[in-house]
């Protein structure tokens, strides 16, 4: 459905996106991640046809975005982070206006979207009076007006309260059953909940493209054992010295005794050896906990050395 082939985008001498390639088949919910300035927003704008690539090619359902922008845009619904809505319009009037712009039958389409997006209670309210959560729903209804095959959402739950977040996530999940959805977000927990696949861009380059569960498996081998014992940092370090599988040891501030953060190699199981070594010195062992890399840790690993801070 979406084919991005060696795409770059320059702004003057600055390269915001640098040789990015990926393809997304129909029916996936994909998380597009990256630190601020990574190039993900520029990538989304090129997919929608808002920006032209400097180099490379983007195809939607086999159609080149640059050569036939009208046909490709008809297949895409896009909701930016701050949906551009007319605040002085009533929700029903606004959606009917959008229906007319898209050449849709408002009497048929608006009631369907009203139900799909959960807008029944606010259809006769001014948009300016709505909570941010309901404004996001109106933005979704707008993006869905032409019944797009692809839905691109930029920070869809930004600024929402926890209840609104749950409601919008449930809505996206339902929408994703019949459409290809790309979600750009900084909320990594949201990606784990919603997305079957993760694409990470950093410094304008693609640094990861993997199913969400495989991404965790691939990069979560590195783990840390957190050890808290009634000993000084030197004593605790000497107690575990020589245990095979330890990569490094650091310490964090502890209320009682000392807390060591022991990085282990390749997921090696060495907790029993650590426990025996500490107890052999007659130190009280308060905590022994294995902490695998979270998706947030993986994100930091992949983007730490690539962020250029200037792209969008």
Plain-language structure description:
The chain has 312 residues and is of the alpha/beta class. The longest helix has 14 residues. The strands form three sheets. It has a six-stranded mixed β-sheet, sandwiched between helices. It contains eleven helices and 14 strands.
Task: Strand order, main sheet: write it out.
Answer: 6-7-8-3-9-10
Unreliable stretches (pLDDT < 50, length at least 5) are 307-311
Tell me the span between the first and last alpha carbons: 24 Å
Q: Given the structure, what is the number of helices?
A: 11
Helical content stands at 25-40%
Number of strands: 14
The helix-and-strand class reads alpha/beta
Backbone CA Rg: 25 Å
Estimate the global geometry from the Cα principal axes.
elongated
What is the averaged pLDDT score? 89
Q: Give the DSSP E fraction (strand runs of 2 or more residues).
A: 25-35%
Q: Can you summarize this structure?
A:
The chain is of the alpha/beta class. The chain has helices at 40-48, 69-73, 91-101, 106-116, 132-143, 162-175, 188-194, 212-219, 233-240, 271-280, 295-303; strands at 2-11, 14-24, 29-33, 55-60, 63-64, 76-79, 150-154, 180-184, 197-202, 205-211, 223-229, 246-252, 258-264, 285-292.
